From TrEMBL:
Positions of transmembrane segments: 18-36, 93-110, 116-134
Primary localization class, coarse: membrane
Membrane topology: Multi-pass membrane protein
Cited SUPFAM superfamilies: MFS general substrate transporter
Native organism: Pseudomonas typographi
Protein origin, superkingdom: Bacteria
Name of the protein in question: MFS transporter
Signal sequence region: none
Keywords linked to the UniProt accession: Membrane, Transmembrane, Transmembrane helix, Transport
Gene3D superfamilies named among the record's database cross-references: MFS general substrate transporter like domains
Length: 149
């Protein structure tokens, strides 16, 4: 739903800025998931997940556009393969990390599912916040380079 809108926005605005806004929205959604009530309703959960989905939808297309724009036209197939490999590798590593955290949390006495979900969403929120900082640094670096010219 948001991906076509994000694609259109990148025709008018800098793709890095649009993807940074997407990461910010995603981070806010993950942060909201941290504060789920102990017994959440479907609505409590749904609006938070929708916010995460919107953020991801605003992040991914502009980010891909930016990556392919920086690849030589003769290398777009290679860039696509590298992107796919990086995405699959990242998903695999995260799945392994989640399994490890599950195993470690299972060994802790007194931990509950609620506590575990708070830790998971807080960790994910921290990673997305670091991604946002990296994106913002890229924007400021580009602005400094433009001013130097």
């Amino acid at each position: 739903m948001c991906a076509p809108i994000a694609g259109n926005l990148t025709n008018r605005f800098n793709a890095t800025h649009v993807s940074s806004i997407g990461v910010l929205i995603f981070c806010l959604g993950l942060g909201a998931l941290i504060f789920l009530p102990e017994r959440p309703s479907v609505g409590d959960f749904l609006w938070r997940v929708v916010l995460c989905g919107m953020g991801y939808g605003f992040f991914l297309p502009p980010n891909n556009k930016e990556m392919f724009a920086n690849a030589a036209k003769t290398r777009t197939a290679t860039a696509s393969g590298v992107l796919s490999t990086a995405r699959t590798t990242g998903q695999s590593i995260v799945a392994a990390l989640v399994a490890m955290v599950l195993a470690l949390m299972g060994g802790l006495s007194g931990s509950t599912e609620g506590e575990f979900s708070v830790y998971v969403f807080a960790f994910a929120c921290a990673i997305s916040a670091l991604s946002l900082l990296a994106s913002m640094a890229r924007i400021y670096k580009r602005q400094d380079q433009d001013l130097a010219l």
